[in-house]
């Protein structure tokens, strides 16, 4: 697990807190080339779950419904995405990884190393071959596969995960 290399005192990527220790949206650097954003969970989040990071600093389990367009309040479309690296109860504060290697991502089941897409299940990814139209993504590469018939976590490299919606395909 990554550790902080920022000059911020008290950064703990591994444990959520019921008390805000930093301003929402604060960013920190970690080992393994990682970058993190400080958020509050709007629902219970589990290790590896992909979350949408809203401009207000709230983290919400990512769903494909959030891909479609943006609105004036910044609640859909073009949100920052990351993967939470620890279980976090609703209303608690935690760091969400946006970049780095050796990070957990939640999967819907067996997934081989390689590119992935967004799953219909909140906050999870599936193998790129099974992705529905409009649910492709970039910035997530599975490095150690998950081999299970049920939900699991896999190790991945994150490079600012993002949807490919609205981006012309080559």
Unreliable stretches: 166-170
How confident overall, as mean pLDDT? 84
Q: Residue share in helices?
A: under 10%
- In terms of structural class, how would the helical and strand content be classed? mainly beta
DSSP helical segment count: 0
The separation of the N and C termini measures 36 Å
Largest sheet: 5 strands, mixed, barrel
* Sequence of secondary-structure elements: EEEEEEEEEE
Q: Number of DSSP strands?
A: 10
Largest sheet, order of strands side by side?
2-4-3-5-6
Strand content: 35-45%
Give the tags:
170 residues, mainly beta, 5-stranded mixed β-barrel, 0% helix, globular, disordered C terminus
Give structural notes.
The structure is a single chain. The chain has 170 residues and is mainly beta. The protein has a five-stranded mixed β-barrel. Helices cover 0% and strands 41% of the residues. The C terminus is likely disordered.
SSE blueprint:
Blueprint (H helix, E strand, L loop, with lengths): L26 E4 L3 E8 L8 E4 L4 E4 L18 E5 L8 E15 L6 E5 L6 E3 L8 E9 L7 E12 L7
């Amino acid at each position: 697990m990554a550790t902080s290399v920022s000059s911020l005192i008290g950064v703990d990527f591994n444990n959520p807190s019921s008390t805000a220790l930093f301003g929402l949206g604060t960013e920190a650097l970690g080992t393994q080339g990682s970058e993190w954003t400080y958020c509050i969970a709007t629902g219970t989040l589990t290790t590896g779950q992909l979350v949408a990071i809203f401009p207000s600093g709230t983290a919400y389990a990512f769903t494909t419904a959030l891909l479609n367009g943006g609105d004036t309040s910044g609640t859909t479309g073009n949100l920052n995405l990351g993967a939470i690296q620890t279980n976090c109860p609703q209303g608690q504060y935690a760091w969400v990884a946006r970049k780095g290697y050796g990070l957990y991502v939640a999967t819907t089941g067996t997934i081989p190393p390689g590119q992935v897409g967004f799953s219909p299940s909140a906050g999870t990814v599936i193998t790129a071959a099974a992705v529905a139209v409009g649910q492709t993504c970039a910035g997530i590469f599975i490095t150690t596969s998950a081999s299970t018939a049920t939900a699991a976590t896999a190790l991945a490299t994150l490079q600012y995960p993002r949807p490919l919606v609205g981006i012309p395909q080559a």
